[in-house]
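We were asked to recover a plausible sequence for a given structure. The inputs and outputs are reproduced exactly as logged, with field labels preserved.

PROBLEM: sequence recovery
POSITIONS: 247
GIVEN STRUCTURE:
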């Protein structure tokens, strides 16, 4: 084929209806135990099931862990343990994953997580920490090969600064931050009245979702401009930013 020199090309955006589903369908299916956790999540906390990590994300996290021959992982935000069990499975037998949650979102999630850890062949690698995220980050010991940050977005900058101040990430380790595209709201954040003043659950959710976009935008700017790290925001699922200490 001959390439024309008078042709111009502007790559179209991949972002259109169905992209997420297509990505899921075109990735290797996750293990039966992860499918089981996802089903239990939908059954026990249907209103919140969507905040669980997606299959394509956990497969990606597993690849990071195995490629980096990682041994020690910290997860901030356990929920029902979908990501925890997936990451545990990618760790070697003597590896460990500490996972922090206070279950502020939904206490029913703890039951699913506890049951899933007990049933999993990788359960011995999982150390659940029932605590507030900041308190957990202030109290965990040692450094980690991978930290998966997936809790409340208004505190992302505080969590990031605590991770750096306490040297929780080993050199060349990876901090993976979830939801950094926040459903696309980061492109044009709206300001709604405080969620606390909402009269219905639906209104509360709409306000919380809209207002948190400002926090995600602040966080994204904070790390993109921070010379101590290098960051790449990947448009996987809801946006996952990979952060490494600048060497
Ligand atoms: C998006 S979910 C985590 C999803 C999980 N990583 C997965 O793989 O499915 C967020 C979790 O963070 C927890 N969380 C939110 N704010 C928190 C805080 N301040 N301290 C501790 N946990 C918190 C919530 O209880 C919720 O279970």
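RECOVERED SEQUENCE:
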């Amino acid at each position: 084929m001959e390439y024309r020199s008078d042709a111009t090309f502007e790559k179209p955006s991949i972002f259109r209806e169905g992209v997420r589903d297509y990505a899921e369908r075109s990735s290797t299916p996750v293990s039966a135990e992860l499918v089981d956790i996802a089903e239990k999540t939908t059954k026990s906390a249907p209103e919140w099931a969507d905040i669980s990590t997606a299959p394509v994300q956990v497969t990606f996290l597993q690849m990071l862990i195995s490629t980096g021959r990682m041994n020690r992982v910290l997860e901030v935000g356990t929920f029902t343990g979908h990501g925890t069990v997936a990451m545990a499975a990618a760790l070697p037998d003597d590896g460990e994953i500490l996972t922090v949650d206070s279950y502020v979102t939904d206490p029913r999630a703890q039951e699913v997580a506890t049951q899933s850890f007990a049933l999993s062949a990788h359960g011995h690698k999982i150390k659940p920490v029932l605590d507030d995220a900041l308190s957990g980050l202030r109290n965990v010991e040692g450094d980690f090969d991978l930290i998966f940050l997936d809790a409340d977005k208004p505190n992302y900058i505080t969590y990031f600064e605590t991770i750096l101040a306490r040297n929780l990430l080993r050199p060349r380790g990876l901090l993976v931050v979830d939801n950094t595209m926040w459903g696309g709201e980061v492109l044009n954040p709206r300001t709604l009245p405080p969620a606390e003043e909402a009269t219905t659950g639906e209104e509360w959710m709409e306000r919380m979702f809209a207002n948190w976009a400002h926090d995600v935008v602040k966080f994204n700017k904070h790390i993109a401009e921070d010379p101590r790290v290098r960051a790449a925001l990947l448009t996987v699922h809801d946006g996952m930013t990979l952060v490494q200490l600048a060497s």
